Amino acid sequence: MKAGAPSLILVVRQRVRASPAEVFAAWIDPERLKQWWGPEGVDCIAAEIDFRVGGAYRIGNRFPGGKVIWLAGRFEAIEPPHRLVYSWGAEPVTPQERVTVRFEARDDGTEVVVTHERIPSQELRDGHRRGWEGCLQGLADHLDAG
Question: What is the CATH number of domain 8-145?
Fold first, then answer.
């Protein structure tokens, strides 16, 4: 981000009835991620994950009407099954935003906490909120279905 540019933060939470290890596994396995990723109406057409610190990921999202957006970045921290940190951006822009996902054990399963930082505008933050809320609900539904 440019110096002096706004930098907004978004935090989204979702309870999931599965262990942190199960939720973490669903997040990092490309085939499983494709089954739950994306808010309603958005299809995950591809997921590529090089799961190591410094490794890249790409996630293809097809929106209603056919537009495809690729989200991409690199893993900055990996602490199974508790925490992931990665850069975030829509290609072809170099990822400038950062996402931290925590998988916190609860009596009834796991609370997934997504903290999305370095967001450059309120409009983008609002879009990310809708996207993350939809993704996390999809994750909960996927794990509930077994």
Answer: 3.30.530.20
Give Cα separations from 66 to 18, 70, 71, 88, 122 (angstroms): 33, 13, 16, 22, 25
To 5 degrees, how large is the angle CA 93–CA 78–CA 61?
40
Q: What is the pLDDT of residues 74-128, one digit of tens each?
A: 999 999 999 999 999 999 888 799 999 999 999 989 999 999 999 999 999 999 9
Contact predicate 78/84, CB 8 Å:
yes
> What is Dmax (Cα atoms) for the chain?
46
Whole-angstrom distance, CA of residue 1 vs CA of residue 118: 8
Helices 20-28 and 122-145: crossing angle in degrees, nearest 10, is 120
Question: Tokens 């950062």 — which residue?
Answer: 98
Instruction: Quick: pLDDT tens for 20-51.
Output: 999 999 999 999 999 999 988 999 999 999 99
**Chain CA centroid to CA 61, Å:** 12
Helix (H) or strand (E) holding 75: strand 68-79
Adjacent-strand bridge partners of 90: 71
